[in-house]
Design a protein that fits this description.
Layout: H1 10-19, E1 24-28, H2 35-48, E2 53-57, H3 58-63, H4 73-92, E3 96-100, H5 106-116, E4 120-125, H6 129-135, H7 140-145, E5 167-169, H8 176-189
Length: 190
Amino acid sequence: MNNFICFISSKQRTRSFEKRMNKCIWLLGLSGAGKSSISLELKELFISKGLKCLILDGDILRKGINSNLGFTEADRFENIRRAAEIAKLFMEEGYWVVVAMITPMEEMRKNSRQILQNQYVEVFIDTPIEVCMERDPKGLYQQVKEKQIKNFTGIDSPFEIPQHAHLSIETAYFSIEESAKLIFNQVIEN
């Protein structure tokens, strides 16, 4: 039996990565906007079409690979950078990747765009903070009120409204299912 090793240069790998049809759909928005719920629904839509899909959820990443990071500006940047690099690895293997992370600053988004190149699709889950506070699925806004959490995005830590989003979904007006279908159809059609 002949064994051989095929080496692919990083330039060849990057070129083939750029030609892929699969994308990274980066859902960003405030806590409670609906990012995680929409990502789960999107995954089901991709799977129903026979496509491989992976979700990278900020809360889950912070319990594992990013558990050593805090909430300083540098740590938040690194949290996002790692997610983009992980997404790129899975995309090179043919996965559609849905990232659900607050991603509060434009500098963080710009870095993700640079890592993921033309595979990056930015979707702003545009939900008023009042709606997010009403939903409060994790009880975080209540903890902020009780001063148990500081530097909370949208309250006492900034969230820059995206200027380069490919799509903006107002979840105050659309259900999770409707939001996911809008995103899915837009990404697949383009």
